Amino acid sequence: QLQLVESGGGLVQPGGSLRLSCAASGSTLADYTIGWARQAPGKEREGVSCISRSDGSTHYADSLKDRFTISRDNAKNTVYLQMNDLRPEDTAVYYCAAGPECYNLPYWGQGTQVTVSS
Questions:
Q1: pLDDT by 10s per residue, the chain, length 118
Q2: Which site from 6, 16, 92, 103 is most exposed, i.e. has the minimal number of CB atoms within 10 Å?
């Protein structure tokens, strides 16, 4: 059974950077398409980024593609989300998820909190 654990969240000042990690156990992450989503207080969960299992192609929410970068290290069974120029509106719980394609990600981690504040 695939299990996902996110890490790397925390408190950062506006303009700062964080790198989130999504580590997998119980299965090989390379067999899955991996996505990141976030949920801010009082808001619906929204998709952030996705990286394909087949060709490594990446996809981003239009508003984030210039600041966020998704990558995967199959040898470490880990997917990363590099977030730069963070803004207060990026404050949210960030989740990674896995599945066969970007719009079908049934396996979810517990999330990691990102807070952007001065």
A1: 899 999 999 999 999 999 999 999 999 988 999 999 999 999 999 999 999 998 889 999 999 999 999 999 989 999 999 999 999 999 999 999 999 999 999 999 999 999 999 9
A2: 103
